[in-house]
Amino acid sequence: MADLRLIYVDDSGVENTGWIVFGWLDCTHEAWRVCLRDLLEMRKDLYREHGVPVSEELHTTKYVSGRTRIAPHAPANTKWKDLGRAVAVRCLETLRDCSHISTGAAYRHSEARGKAYAQEKAATYTALVQRWDRNLAGRSEVGLVNMDGDGSDPTYFAAHRALTLNTRHLIEDPFFHDSRRSQLIQMADLVAWTTYAHLNKHAGNQFAHTWYEDYLLSSDANDGPFEI
């Protein structure tokens, strides 16, 4: 029986910059319990150290900028940007140190805007799905893709259904989760955002310019983000 690999993926990038980024983490089904337990233990530490509830969604764009008060009972003088960035680093350290988790990132930079940008993003995901499928086949594994969202974007389904049924190793359509209730999806969001900060080194994210090299590169099976 082929091993089952669970892939958790999210996107990042901004249309007006032209960047399209997909970041993910994956593990075997056998290691899933260990990976989730490591993340839950980390979340307990965040509660003890910073008052961030385990149930609080960690949406990277919001908490690293200090826009979300992720610790409801924090002192009035809390510096929310500092807290958010400390939380992000703690999450990244956990991903780095969990030997069962692999990470990855793919990107494309486009001059397209509007509808054309959306089409370019769909094409990027399609190429990534094809690459995942080839890699799974090479390892004699099968995979399931898990994403944030309600499944309303048909391009994700189309990318999976374009694979040849008789030979495909990515099984089923992507599974969509409520990110508020999935620690692994929240970590995929962090991988995608960290990759974007690594690729698009604008001044506002200077604090995160080296996060990819510092925390994710060692677990990246592709030795860094790749253009697709």
CATH superfamily: Ribonuclease H-like superfamily/Ribonuclease H
Q: Given the structure, what is the number of helices? A: 7
* Structural domain count: 1
Instruction: Summarize the main sheet.
Output: 6 strands, mixed
Shape: globular
> CATH fold name, please?
Nucleotidyltransferase, domain 5
How far is the first residue's CA from the last residue's CA? 31 Å
Q: Provide the structure class.
A: alpha/beta
The overall pLDDT average reads: 96
Would you identify the CATH architecture? 2-Layer Sandwich
Q: In percent, how helical is the residue content?
A: 40-55%
Share of β-strand residues: 15-25%
Low-confidence stretches: none
Keywords:
single chain; alpha/beta; 7 helices; 18% strand; six-stranded mixed sheet; 228 residues; Nucleotidyltransferase, domain 5; 6 strands
Describe this structure in words.
- It is built from seven helices and six strands; from the N terminus they run ββαααβαβαβααβ.
- It has helices spanning 32-50, 60-63, 80-97, 115-138, 154-161, 183-199, 211-216, and strands spanning 3-12, 19-28, 102-109, 141-148, 175-177, 226-227.
- It is of the alpha/beta class and 228 residues long.
- The chain has a six-stranded mixed β-sheet with strand order 5-4-1-2-3-6, with helices on both faces.
- It has one domain (3-227): Ribonuclease H-like superfamily/Ribonuclease H (Nucleotidyltransferase, domain 5, 2-Layer Sandwich), CATH 3.30.420.10.
- The longest helix is centred in the middle third of the chain and has 24 residues, at 115-138.
- The protein is globular, with a radius of gyration of 17 Å.
- The model has no long low-confidence stretch (mean pLDDT 96).
